[in-house]
Design brief:
It comes from Cytobacillus eiseniae. Pfam families: DUF2624. The chain is mostly helical. The chain has one domain. The protein has five helices and no strands. Helix 3 runs antiparallel to helix 4.
Length: about 80
């Protein structure tokens, strides 16, 4: 299970704005290109473990500052789906 967690966390820390837009469409999360680029810029290089509730919560709060609370809630639901897989 640890390998799975590492792969997901690595992907999150290296995601691009375009990838975020693609995932947004796939999971019906409304996000603009500008928001996607800001979020990706924040995530790039961050060592965030979305499997840790406090780290995920901090990350979602930062996303809310950039993309708004609705988008942050949708992203949090997506993160939770990833952690339960």
């Amino acid at each position: 299970m640890k390998i799975f967690e590492n792969i997901i966390n690595h992907k999150i820390s290296n995601i691009t704005g375009d990838e975020l837009l693609k995932y947004g469409k796939q999971f019906q999360i409304i996000i603009t290109k500008q928001q996607a680029n800001k979020i990706a810029g924040y995530l790039r290089g961050q060592q965030v473990n979305i499997f840790n509730d406090s780290e995920r919560s901090r990350l979602v709060k930062e996303i809310a500052k950039v993309a708004g609370p609705e988008t942050a809630r949708a992203v949090n639901k997506l993160f939770i789906q990833f952690t339960k897989a």
